């Protein structure tokens, strides 16, 4: 039996709609164990979001990021996405698969320029992030993981991914999407004057631009 669908609409906080998206209402059962986690494969040495410093939750500083992926048709390609919690600044890059090695390299390449503004990164529990220790070493940052199926713990990134879906809809084959097309969409998100986040994103850029070499750890 085919699953039914429901729709939701993203807004910018002022009642401005960014479009509706169909969400499947699946009846698939998820099996949990005594630990409270589903066994899709354990990420070694993961650190729970519960251990993340309170300052990261309060969004009072630049440099706390959320990371996830946007999956293409038939799980053949992905967009790796990152969102900075205070400024709402978005980064993204395209990959032909979500193997952990490629995802690790993409996260490092996206954040390398902002290494001095990268205090923490919080990922979801996808196995594509299993090489998180390599990311932590490369960026000299702390990595945390949200609880399985707790998408609200990465609310900003989830919202940003929904906005990116305006340009890369569900069931779209992302294999032939170019980096230029991805960056065009990201620039549209980061530089919309009508967005209430517009000013905060410019604060992020101004802080990055004004940082000197002493900021790099």
3D structure, described in words:
- With 217 residues, the chain is an alpha/beta fold.
- The protein has a single domain, classed as Ribonuclease H-like superfamily/Ribonuclease H (Nucleotidyltransferase, domain 5), CATH 3.30.420.10.
- Helix content is 28%, strand content 21%.
- The chain contains 6 helices and 7 strands; from the N terminus they run ββαβββαβαβααα.
- Strands 5-4-3-6-7 form a 5-stranded mixed sheet, sandwiched between helices. It has a two-stranded antiparallel ribbon with strand order 1-2.
- β4 and β5 form a beta hairpin.
- α2 runs parallel beside α3.
- The longest helix has 13 residues.
- The chain is globular and about 40 Å long.
Structural class: alpha/beta
What would CATH call the architecture? 2-Layer Sandwich
Name the poorly predicted regions: 1-39, 211-217
The strands making up the biggest β-sheet line up spatially as: 5-4-3-6-7
**CATH fold node name:** Nucleotidyltransferase, domain 5
The total domain count is 1
Largest sheet: 5 strands, mixed
List the helices and strands and how they pair.
Blueprint: E1 4-11, E2 17-25, H1 54-58, E3 64-71, E4 78-84, E5 90-95, H2 100-112, E6 120-123, H3 132-139, E7 142-145, H4 155-164, H5 179-190, H6 198-210
Parallel strand pairs: 3-6, 6-7
Antiparallel strand pairs: 1-2, 3-4, 4-5
Helix pairs in contact: 2-3
Primary descriptors:
217 residues, alpha/beta, Nucleotidyltransferase, domain 5, five-stranded mixed sheet, disordered C terminus
Quick description:
The chain is α/β, with parallel strands linked by helices and 217 residues long. The chain has helices at residues 54-58, 100-112, 132-139, 155-164, 179-190, 198-210; strands at 4-11, 17-25, 64-71, 78-84, 90-95, 120-123, 142-145.
